[in-house]
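Much of our argument rests on the idea that a fold can be written as discrete symbols. In the encoding step, the backbone of a single protein was reduced to a row of integers, each denoting a local shape. We regard such an encoding as a compact summary of how the chain folds. The record that follows shows the chain in one-letter code together with its fold in token form:
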Amino acid sequence: MIIAVAKRKLRFYTGGGRNFVSVKDVSSAIVNSLEIQNIGKYYITGNENISYRTFFKKIATVVEQPAPQIKIPNWSIKILGYMGNLFGYLLKKQPLISYPVACISCENQFASSEDAKNELKMPQTPIEVAIEECYEWFKTKGYCLLYDVEE
């Protein structure tokens, strides 16, 4: 999603949302879980529950590109996903968006990570910082080259 916004390839968003978290925070939680050895306990490693619209705005600020402005109705994105599956099957190509991905993008996949924060001492890096770190990594690895943005 970060690369798509950086390259101005994403013009729309759906009504769903999810929980976003920094990979470094998840890594810390994993290391801490090995030290406390609470065998059999499951943890949700997360941070902030936000809509895709809000997430894309945060990305746009970091990558200095416009955020997607068009909200696609859920029924419409699901039809596009279904058509993606159909044409992908017929043309033997990976669809741009599949039906399962379309359905998931319409849902609010929110979760609480209180146990991980409290028991695993998982940090809660602001999402803007996580986006910035991720974007910088993408740039150093050549995923967001300037000539790609000029399309």
In short: The two ends are 17 Å apart (CA to CA). The longest strand covers residues 17-20.
